[in-house]
């Protein structure tokens, strides 16, 4: 089996859905799925203390749970297929997901959590490294790798990004954990109705084979997890919001929705009509958009990274935010819609303005764009894309861009597989470049946030000396 200096692949196997009878055979990729065909697979995983059972028993438990989970998420056991008209579908053909057992017993939990910068060893805890989503035509759409450490275990998932976004990813992960700990019900049934612009006739044609990522995946970057306590975020909020208008917008709180106790009996994996009830229960959940990290961490990071990059005052800098559009469009789609339902919101400003104006101004610029991204804006972006179908360009093309993904509202620490909550969240090498930021919930305090920040080494060094930013880091 393949091995590196510290990690050995002990076994690989294919896991098939426990039930292979579904009410659908294919799922057409939407206008939000297709642009991801040139992106790497999503790679996210969880670090745990050692479970109180032998490794053979753990692997058997996880394989059984994965079989059950694939019965609810049959798309993840399929493959991509392109029709003669160029449209791409997920063929739910039960070809199976990959399950990998690896050993890295020279690495301990402290070796992952103690270093200031995320160690390169973490990248080995994920399968399908460097694979782009288009390759799902002949590679598994899902790979689960279980890596033994000297005093813990890491469960890493690699999932095709053209098949799902972060909302769907964590719904899958939560269900996997739920069934692993012996549940006979699942609380978050995925919605496979293709009602997020699913009637589009737009296609992307690749004349030269598989597309490539749009950034230099070998460029050197430093990666660090910055932790912000609830208290630090409140201090930033007061500073940023002291004159920021408290505009409210009816956007459903995703954190509350993802944690709703909608008990759904285990069945044969067929689609059930639970969406309307869930939607009616959810519409009363309204929160202020200004209660998000848009008002606090994002403007602070934008200012400090821009300063660390030492850009000319006239240089235009861009901050992109990936937003969930499930509850922004009319009619709204189910919060647990399976697939990608995201768009990227760019905010552009001159470097001189970002640095000479205060944090409140930066927060206002970002906040205004988030609130303005309503049904009309979402549909306008779709119409514009359909006129010129293309893959989503990830990267920092001008040296002045940042891209924020993931969300502290995702229920990442709800993944208890039966022996306790995760110790930490980590990601693989996928889709990382200078300026890529991911937001995770903090582990030990409700309202705390972790930012996974990837920057060019010299920019990271400058950020770590920036007291406007670092004074809030704990």
TrEMBL record:
A Pfam family recorded for this sequence: Transferase
Keywords from the named record: Transferase
InterPro entries: CAT-like_dom_sf (IPR023213), Sec_Metabolite_Acyltrans (IPR051283)
GO molecular function: transferase activity
PANTHER family: FAMILY REGULATORY PROTEIN, PUTATIVE (AFU_ORTHOLOGUE AFUA_3G14730)-RELATED, TRICHOTHECENE 3-O-ACETYLTRANSFERASE
Name of the protein this chain belongs to: BAHD acyltransferase
Annotated organism of origin: Papaver nudicaule
């Amino acid at each position: 089996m393949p091995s590196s200096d510290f990690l050995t692949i002990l076994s690989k196997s294919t896991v098939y859905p426990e039930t292979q009878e579904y009410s659908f055979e294919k799922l057409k990729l939407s206008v939000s799925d297709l642009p991801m065909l040139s992106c790497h697979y999503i790679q996210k995983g969880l670090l745990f203390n050692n479970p109180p059972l032998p490794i053979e028993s753990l692997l058997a438990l996880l394989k059984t749970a994965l079989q059950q989970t694939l019965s609810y998420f049959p798309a993840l056991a399929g493959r991509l297929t392109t029709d003669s008209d160029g449209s791409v579908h997920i063929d739910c053909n039960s070809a199976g997901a990959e399950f990998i057992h690896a050993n890295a017993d020279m690495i301990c939990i402290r070796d992952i959590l103690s270093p200031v910068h995320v160690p390169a060893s973490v990248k080995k805890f994920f399968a399908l490294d460097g694979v782009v989503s288009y390759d799902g035509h002949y590679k598994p759409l899902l790979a689960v790798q279980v890596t033994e450490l000297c005093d813990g275990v890491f469960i890493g998932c690699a999932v095709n990004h053209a098949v799902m976004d972060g909302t769907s990813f964590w719904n899958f992960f939560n269900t996997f954990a739920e069934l692993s700990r012996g549940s006979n019900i699942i609380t978050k049934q995925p919605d496979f109705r293709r009602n997020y612009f699913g009637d589009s006739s737009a296609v992307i044609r690749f004349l030269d084979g598989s597309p490539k990522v749009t950034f230099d995946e070998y460029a050197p970057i430093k990666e660090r997890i910055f932790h912000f306590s609830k208290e630090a975020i409140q201090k930033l909020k007061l500073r940023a919001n002291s004159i920021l208008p408290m505009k409210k917008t009816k956007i459903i709180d995703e954190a509350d929705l993802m944690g709703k106790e909608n008990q759904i009996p285990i069945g044969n994996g067929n689609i059930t009509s639970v969406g309307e009830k869930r939607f009616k229960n959810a519409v009363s959940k309204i929160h202020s958009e200004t209660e998000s990290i848009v008002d606090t961490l994002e403007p602070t990071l934008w200012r400090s990274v821009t300063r660390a990059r030492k850009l000319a005052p006239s240089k235009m800098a861009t901050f992109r935010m990936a937003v969930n559009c499930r509850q922004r469009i009319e009619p709204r789609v189910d919060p647990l819609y399976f697939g990608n339902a995201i768009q990227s919101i760019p905010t552009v400003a001159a470097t001189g303005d970002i640095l000479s104006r205060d944090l409140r101004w930066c927060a206002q610029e970002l906040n205004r764009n988030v609130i303005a991204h309503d049904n009309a804006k979402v549909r306008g972006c779709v119409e514009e894309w359909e006129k010129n179908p293309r893959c989503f360009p990830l990267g920092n093309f001008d040296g002045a861009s940042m891209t924020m993904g993931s969300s502290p509202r995702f229920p990442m620490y709800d993944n208890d597989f039966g022996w306790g909550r995760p110790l930490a969240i980590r990601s693989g090498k996928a889709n990382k470049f200078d300026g890529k930021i991911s937001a995770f919930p903090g582990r030990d305090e409700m309202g705390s946030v972790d930012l996974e920040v990837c920057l060019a080494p010299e920019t990271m060094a400058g950020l770590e000396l920036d007291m406007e930013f670092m004074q809030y880091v704990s």
